[in-house]
Amino acid sequence: MTTVVTILAGALGIAVGSFLNVCIDRLPRGESIASGRSHCDGCKRQLTARELVPVISYLVLKGRCGSCRAQIPRRMPIVEVVTGLIFASLYLAYGPSGTFLLLAAYACILTIVFVIDLEHGLILNKVVTPILVLALAVAAIAPPQWLGTIGPHPIVSALIGAATGFVLLFLVALVSRGGMGWGDVKFAAFMGAATGFPLIMVAIFAGIVTGGVSGIVLLVFRKKGRKETIPFGPFLAAGTMIALLWGQAILRWYLGMM
Known about the structure:
Layout: H1 2-26, H2 56-60, H3 75-94, H4 98-120, H5 125-141, H6 154-176, H7 182-195, H8 199-220, H9 233-257
Helix pairs in contact: 1-3, 1-4, 3-4, 4-9, 5-6, 5-7, 6-7, 6-8, 7-8, 7-9, 8-9
C-alpha cells in the first residue's frame, strides 16, 4: 500500500510541476498564473489538452510544438520529473503528515525561485513578499518542529531567522558593490523565516558551499568565464532545502566537532 501511495504522491508532484512551469514562464512576464490558456511561445497557438499532459506530451511531441515545430524548453519535463521525485521522496520520509505538506510546499516555492533566477537572473518581489508572509504565518499558527523553542513561541525563532538572513546578505551586498542582488537579500529573509534560527546559518552556509563548488565546476569545464556572473538565488534555494531536510543533523555534527 505504501508503494502505491508513494507512486500517487509522485504523480501528484509531476502534475504540480506542470503548474510550477506555468509560474516560471508567466511571473517574469507579469502575466496571470490563474487565468489564460497555455500557448506556444513561437506561433502563439493555444495548446490542446493532449499537449498539456506532463512529461508524456513532451516525449510524444519530441520536444517541439506540433504546429510550428518551435522547441519546447527542456526545463519543462525536468521540473515536472524532479517535482515528482521530491514529492515521492518526502512522502516516503514523512508519510501523510503536515510536515510532508509543508516541505512539499516549500520545495515548490524554492523550485520557482531556483529556475526563474537561473533563467532570468531575477528574484521577484511578487514572489518573495507572499512567501515571507506565508512562512511567518506558518510559524505563528502551525510551527514545524525544526523552528525550535527560542523564546516563548517558535515565531520568535522565525523572526530572528528572517532578520539574521536579511542582515547578513544585506551586509554582503553592500561590501560586494553589486556582486549580490537585492533580490537575494530579500529572499534571505524568507529563508530565515522558513528555517528559523540557528538553521538559517546552515542554509546560508550550504548555499555558499554549493555555489562555490558549482562555480569551480563551471570554470573548469569552461561553461562560464572568470568575469561572468552566476545567479546566487538557485544556490540559496538549494541551501534552504538542505537546511529544512538535514539542518538539525548538520548543526549537531558541527557542534560536536567543536
